[in-house]
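Appendix C: a fully annotated inverse folding record. The material below is reproduced so that readers can follow the format used throughout the book. The structure is listed first as tokens, followed by the designed sequence.
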């Protein structure tokens, strides 16, 4: 029987750390503030938005919402995004994507102020992940994987890690972050021959394809840790489920995160934590600016 790596305890520990940081910032007159920027009324966006707002309230982060109609013009969309980009009272922006087809999503991504890009979508944020620098923020789900490993005392150093999936949102940044922790990393994707044979040799397996039950017992070994990031709809059970065929894999592996109740529970806490960190960074930047002006 595998150890079940649930996300609730990880999220609670992260929330507690960030709530303490918020209190310190408030003593300096700084209220960390998230702007949720949404176009239209997609059900999945609204669901994530509600979760983010609840988590923000729990940690003490303020939330401003900018909700635009689905048929908003490109000019008005860019004008509103520019406003929140430049508003010093806003420290983090969650821009829901994909945008409606008539809006230029790539231009919007490039427009985001990297200092407020709390979901790791700008080029500067991505570069920070690949160089190991502190520019921008990594994608929240990839960082949630690392938070899970850290909380459960799973040190990637010297371990063989396999990541299934190569998206810029999860797979590639997760691989880079594991490598920064001194794991030896292999990335599998749709063109990888016999991924099960590769995954079976891993000490840590991160799977992020969104393909229901694609990870079977052939992918694992009795000492392996599986972090399941995939989300798909399971018609048989009438709920979401992960990449791993949980009922089949759980008895034959060492540890596994469930779906739901695993990484997803941590991702929103990482997002809100990024808002707090952005507020601290931006306030430090402005303090240094003013100090220079005072010296002049």
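Designed amino acids, in order:
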């Amino acid at each position: 029987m595998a150890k079940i790596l649930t996300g609730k305890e990880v999220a609670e520990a992260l929330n507690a750390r960030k709530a303490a940081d918020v209190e310190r910032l408030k003593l300096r007159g700084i209220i960390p503030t998230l702007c949720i920027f949404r176009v239209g009324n997609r059900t999945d966006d609204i669901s994530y938005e509600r979760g983010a707002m609840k988590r923000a309230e729990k940690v003490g982060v303020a939330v401003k919402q900018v909700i635009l109609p689905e048929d908003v013009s490109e000019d008005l969309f860019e004008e509103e995004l520019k406003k929140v980009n430049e508003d010093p009272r806003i420290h983090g922006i969650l821009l829901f994507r994909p945008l409606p087809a008539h809006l230029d999503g790539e231009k919007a991504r490039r427009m985001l102020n990297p200092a407020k890009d709390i979901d790791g979508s700008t080029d500067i944020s991505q570069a920070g992940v690949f160089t190991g620098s502190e520019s921008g923020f990594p994608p929240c789900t990839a960082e949630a994987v690392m938070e899970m490993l850290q909380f459960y005392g799973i040190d990637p150093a010297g371990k063989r890690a396999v990541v299934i999936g190569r998206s810029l949102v999860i797979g590639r940044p997760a691989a880079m972050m594991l490598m920064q922790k001194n794991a030896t990393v292999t990335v599998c994707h749709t063109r990888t021959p016999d991924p099960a044979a590769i995954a079976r040799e891993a000490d840590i397996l991160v799977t992020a394809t969104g393909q229901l039950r694609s990870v079977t017992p052939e992918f694992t070994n009795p000492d392996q840790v599986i972090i399941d990031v995939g989300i798909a709809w399971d018609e048989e059970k009438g709920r979401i489920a992960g990449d791993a065929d949980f009922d089949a894999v759980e008895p034959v592996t060492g540890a596994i995160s469930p779906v739901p109740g695993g990484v997803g529970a941590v991702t929103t806490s990482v997002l809100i934590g990024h808002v707090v960190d952005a507020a601290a960074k931006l306030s430090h930047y402005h303090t240094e600016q003013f100090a220079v002006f005072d010296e002049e």
